[in-house]
Amino acid sequence: MLCDLDGVVWLAGQAIPGSVEAVARLRASGRRVVFVTNNSAALVGDQEAALAAIGIEAVGDVLTSAGSAASLVRPGERVLVCGGPGVAEAVTAVGAVPVAGDDDAGAVGVDVVVVGLHREFSYARLTIAAAAIRAGARLIGTNDDATYPTPTGPIPGGGSLLAAVSVAGGVTPVVAGKPFPPMAALARRRLQGPGPDSLVMIGDRPSTDGRFASAIGCPFALVRTGVTAPGEAVAGPVAIDAPDLAAVVDVIVEGGP
Ligand SMILES: [Mg+2]
Asked: Which of 28, 86, 115, 118 makes an SS bond possible with 162, Cβ 3.0 to 4.6 Å?
């Protein structure tokens, strides 16, 4: 199983009622559960710890769009990071070198610019990133989500910053996260065992999670505890349409796909 986090398992780190038990039931039925999130800012270890805090052990089972972006970077490359700690962590893990880019020297010798949700983003950083791209650096976005949901409403997502860097640099970015092919390839590699026939992608956003299921070639299960409201019409194929994760697991465990 592939399962989104925000709007499915939790909202702002608070467990959605029934989700913890639902994950436990999936695992008890013999299915592996891998969590796939476009959250690139947080460290993987912090996301695993936050899941453990609500009762889900997930060490080694969290895939992020930062990890997907890093899968497109080669060892030894110098990477200007416009993103949170999760991006620098992922880039370092593949043997590349994060460049701070705190001054003009940061644009020198940069091979790749990676853009995610970057809370310290500034006009100065945009200038350095654009200069690096015009000097030949590749542009990779962790994701292109325009907004990010919070309990008080949407805030600009990494996609909004990526758009600024893309326009200023004059290039079209490669986007790593859901629903794009690099994340699909990463998920397939992590799951290895079962083919798409036995997989289901569970998510709350048809435009990313649903299209991601299509990219992998597996059914999409939609829950209505996140950005898609109960009763709201959605586009694209939906194999299971349920109120929440617990209801999806009812279908899967009791004879669904
Ligand atoms: Mg979500």
From this structure: 115
